[in-house]
Amino acid sequence: MNDNPAGDGTPSRPDPPRPGPPAAPGAVPGPAAPAGRGTPVGRRVVLGMLGLGVAGVAAGPYLQRAADTVVSKVSEKDPTGLTGLLPGGGFRYYSVVASVPTRTAEDYTLTVDGLVDRPSTLRLADLEAMPQTRIVHDVQCVTGWRVPGTPFEGVRLSHLLDAAGVRSGATAVRFTCFDGSYSESLTLDQARREDVLVALRMEDGPVTHAHGGPVRLYVAPMYFYKSAKWLSGITLTSTVQPGYWEHYGYDVDAWVGRSNGRDDAPTG
Fold it and tell me: DSSP assignment of the chain, as one string?
């Protein structure tokens, strides 16, 4: 459920073998066409996208953002994975399900519940009205690629936890997503870090649907699979509940450079 950059990334050494059938987070999906993904992308379309990617790199960030938007829409229906070869520094659409519904400012909601005194359902406007924090960190995927200096803006998760009133029995936070399948967890201490956001903006613009918008989690010091896309629920729990990728062997505590058998430099 993580974004996959179209560029080369910075692998250190191969990941250790992982149990389970899914591709690693950030990896290009295999050649078999998942159900509901539509027909394969034709050769002319792929070549056209390659040209658009090159144009985006040459013309700067504004055209690159437009190119990334077009590429992400095409790659949603590209079972070949060829759009993952596009040049540039942007991110590529990736999901663990065949399709993800779109949420707008009018119909998006985020629930905060579980072991809290004041459960709530927040709309996008509610989140936008809260104090916003900007963080600029590298984004690091466990498969090796890194996108340096990526800005995220949003509400500190600790602010939402304080507003909800965390009960004494809570020791962890579980995150669910409106794709219907993805989940993640943090310990309560991890969730209260100043560099953990409920992000509304990414790369100086609203978080797009392809990047997990309109609202996603951003856990700056951990591998990017912890930064759940399409965030819809925050639940306080008595124990850590392993997320989607942890069921396939990925570390629950996913500190960059200290987990999953990698030695990547910490993000900064």
Answer: ---EESS-----SPPPP--SSSPPTTPPP-SSPPTTS-SPPPHHHHHHHHHHHHHHHHH-HHHHHHHHHHHHHHHTT-TT-GGGG--SSSEE---SSS------TTT-EEEEEESBSS-EEEEHHHHHTS--EEEEEEEE-TTS-EEEEEEEEEEEHHHHHHHH-B-TT--EEEEEETTSS-EEEEEHHHHTSTTEEEEEEETTEEPPTTTT-S-EEEETTB-GGGS-SSEEEEEEESS----TGGGGT--SS-BTTSSTT--PPPP-
pLDDT in tens, the chain (268 residues): 555 433 333 333 333 334 343 444 543 333 233 333 333 334 444 344 444 444 443 444 444 445 445 545 544 444 434 334 343 345 656 689 988 999 999 999 999 999 999 999 999 999 999 999 999 999 998 888 889 999 999 999 999 999 999 999 999 999 999 999 999 999 999 999 999 999 999 999 999 998 999 999 999 999 999 999 999 999 999 999 999 999 999 999 999 998 888 899 999 8
What pTM was estimated for this model as a whole?
0.73
